[in-house]
Amino acid sequence: MSDQTPALREPWDALAKQREAATFGIWVFLASELLFFGAIFLVYAYLRALHSTAFEQASSHTSVFYGTLNTAVLLTSSMTMVLAARAADIKVKAAVVVCLSLTAACGLIFLVVKGFEYKQDIDDGLLPGDHFALAAAAAKMFFSFYWGITVVHAVHLSIGIVAVLRLALDVYRDRLPLRSPQYEVTALYWHLVDIIWIILYPLLYLGGRSS
Amino acid sequence: MSDIAIGGVGRRNYLNDSHSIRSWLLTTDHKRIAILYAISITIFFLIGGAAISLVRLELLTPNGMFLSDDSYNKLFTIHGVIMVWFFLIPSIPNTLGNFLLPLMIGASDVAFPRLNLLSWYLNITGGLFTVAALVGGGVDAGWTFYTPFSTEFSHGAIALAAIGVFISGFSSIATGVNFIATIHMLRMPGVTWFRLPLFVWSLYATSMMFVLATPVLAVTLLLLVIERLFHLPLFDPDYGGDPLLFQHLFWFYSHPAVYIMVLPSMGVITEVITCFARRRVFGYAFMVYALVSIAGIGFFVWGHHMFVSGQSPLASLIFSFLSFVVAVPSAIKVFNWTATLYRGQISFEAPMIYALGFVGLFTVGGLTGLFLASIPVDIHVHDTYFVVAHFHYIMVGGAVSAFFAGLHFWWPKITGRLYSESWARFAAILMFFGFNFTFFPQFVMGYAGMPRRYHVYPPEFQVYHVMSTIGATVLAAAYLLPPVYLGWSLWRGRRAGDNPWGASGLEWQTNSPPPPKNFVRRPEAPDQPYDYHPAGQAPRADERSPRRAANAAADR
Amino acid sequence: MGFPLYPAAASTQAQATDAIFIGLLVLSGVVCLLVFGLIFGFAFRYRNGSRANRGDLPEFVQRDFEIGWTAATLFLFLFIAWFTSATDLGSLAPRKGTIEIHVVAKQWMWKTQHPNGAREINALHVPAGEPVSLAMTSEDVIHSFYVPEFRIKQDVLPGRYTQTWFQTTRTGTFHLFCTQLCGTEHSRMVGDVVVMKPDDYARWSAAQPQADDIAKEGESLFRSLGCSGCHAPSSTVHAPSLVGIFGKPVHLTDGRTVTADDAYIRDSILQPSRAIVDGYANIMPSFSGLIGDDEILRLTAYIRSLRDPKESMR
Q: CA angle, A206 as apex, A200 and A207 as ends, to 5°?
């Protein structure tokens, strides 16, 4: 028995199995992303253990306003993403399109806010180079890490935004059935990007601000 | 007895299904993707081989002949980078693995066929960046890219090469995800986990390492590029950074990488030895546990590359201990392959010659690993030719031999043709002798103190270098033979039947070459892998030389 | 023309290393004979169509063999691991009465300095039979100090000191190689370690151009760079006294206790805010970029020489 909807692809002969495989596959991929970001966090942990004062001092110079705003935006986007996946489950097409669009919009807002934040960071002299504002040598390392990881996160987020927008477009134009595995796959990826940010936020913004 | 009907002639198979370039470059058929990979890895092998030929030539005299110091450093770097990431790592998994995995489990393709094609494009894109680095200035930091030389002092195209390898890493991760999902979800009914061919198990263990180790390489290279291109310090001691951090990150990936390179080889060897000894593999369960433990423990031994780096003595002791532990499952596999020969009906076709050569060379390579795991000995031989010889015994004597074993074993299935057995045997034997003559002297000169990566060297080592270069010339000649006689077989070779070797395994239950969807009729999954003989009985002599039976049938 | 089959053993470590090497060689030889012998034996005896007896092995023999050789291999390897580690541990602590040589590596040369100030480039003269300890650092990239005949090797890193030691057992001239790829002339960064009889060494040492004792040079640097401005006993600035601190524990503001060794002195000069002595403020300026490794060497030698007058000589 084979399910001849456009969502069914080789080598599968049943959509349920294909969905299961897609979910399985994205989880395996998320395991690799865990190792990827895990290695980055390990680098941070090691450098911070080596230079705790300098790192603390440096992280008090990041823009906690923009950072917190972005955290709120991303958390909201995760909520809309969950709603989109749920709407796909219960086959409410309009809700799917709306929620996916909101998710992508939140992602774009994040990037825009990040852009403003970067501009302010550069104005404050926080780009490691000849005119670096902070005295401690290790502070340059903190900011190397800051720029590196936020760019990597932004790249992951951008990939997610493109995926979500493409999904929204396909649903809107009825080119993708609501039973396709792609909703769950995209949602899982989006949540990963969000979780990475949730870990990054205290590492980058909350150090040195407790007293 | 297997079906020896002549397959392929006039029948629709994956090769003649469509001839347009587009149908090849946009294929999602795992078999065609395997062929695409085979072509690209061959090109990379030629580039890496050309580089080291120049190196070995230069080393004939102690003071060099035609290369500058910088050119020399660039040549061995490009040899290492290309051979590791663009030949060895993709070789068996992405050619033989891609082709055979769905066939071996009774599926019509891998779990994510389009992702499979993307893997290939990522691989060759990465390769193009890396070759561009070669042409655009050269890379001189060694394939290991140690900081601060690579980040602050080298004048080569380091960032470009690092980006190329970074991109190819995603090819590996995609392959890993694909294979794991395929093995979990596409086994046909009757193919349970403990009935899988050991080649499939080896691909499974390798894929775990692809998925978990490669991301760390990606991070390492990313941080290297960030520091080098954007001058954002992370490993720079002037800012409080630590060059050893780079080494830990690099080797955390690169040690599992060597198991990525060797585990699929082990899988191939089991397939070949069982077939040509007509025996079930000795100790199937232990062979599985051995594969999985090598993959698992292999994640925790990376510090044995860093005994003299300045890491703490306690760390060195722990890594040394674990390195001895990880050697045990490899030893078990060698014993089991040997025991598989016992009471068999052994014939010596080319795949078997390669396979037996593998067992011998891998044994030598593995034993020298014990030397390297011992800290006092390693302190003496680290960064000398002893290490170079050790890893070439495993990578070339081992993995490349296994690749050729598999290539010849499955050649009839992949191409529908039989190759010339006498030429193949000759090449295998020539390769074995050429290989040993190249690399055994390197063990001796390594212990004698000859450092690696040296353009000029003290004259007392010259005799070893000359021996090694002569061996390398023989080896190079041996490598040039298979393209010739295998290519010839494509044009004028005898057509192969479905199962010219009388081998077990579902891939032999379909045509040679297979149809686009793999099976014309549903294959029968056996209750046991390697059912060459009933349990409790020995293989019979009239099972002998399946090749002769096939040839006889072909003449009818 | 001879070629080395085996390097001379010229140090105490060489003897230990060679013993392990030979042991492993014998073991490897036995294993290879066993494995190759069985393969050839089986390949011949059980070749296709031969008339050897072929019955199947009973199940329990299969399982017992497996468990047996797995356990045997594991215990053997664990024994080797223990034995080699014990040897390694035994060689970690340098012996008493050690001569301390400072080594600075840079692209592409070795600079060595003796305790009495004698300096050499790409060479090291030492007296035979005495333990020699090397404190090494690099001015640029990672290098590695390797003397095959001593069986010693240690990577030399920028920004920190690494240590190794050897005790020679014979006189002669031995190769020194750099064994960490360090750039264009990596293979030309070689030198000689010359081991001399003690009186020959004494004569050689006396014949060296009399450089000032490096500790004396350190003392003048201590003044000219302004260190004495804060660290001299007469200073009005509250800074820790450096008399007698070398090798002693130091309590830091963050609660840690560290030993005042070469690395600590170097860090205090280049990155003073990293480890502030308990009871003092973070006011010492950093000299990073203002002084080189050579000068740090001299300052360290000077501080090392500042002994508490109440302490007896070590």
A: 105
